[in-house]
Amino acid sequence: MFVAMFVALAVVDRTVGGFGFAASMALVLAIAFGYPFAVRALGVAPPVWRR
After folding, report:
1. What is the CA 37 to chain-centroid distance, rounded?
2. pLDDT tens track of the chain, all 51 residues?
3. Residues spanned by the domain of 35
4. Taxonomically, which superkingdom (predicted)?
5. For residue 2, how far is the Cα from the chain centroid?
């Protein structure tokens, strides 16, 4: 998840340029909350995450 956050921030920074703190935080929060759902949907979640 941390790698996905760093990659997303790097890609956005490279394509858009300067990215504000609030927008960066919003992107990090979107990835942090969306990552578990995406991993479960793809079927690659660790056994502990499965309900």
Report:
1. 11
2. 788 888 888 888 889 887 788 888 898 899 889 988 998 899 898 888 876
3. 2-49
4. Archaea
5. 7
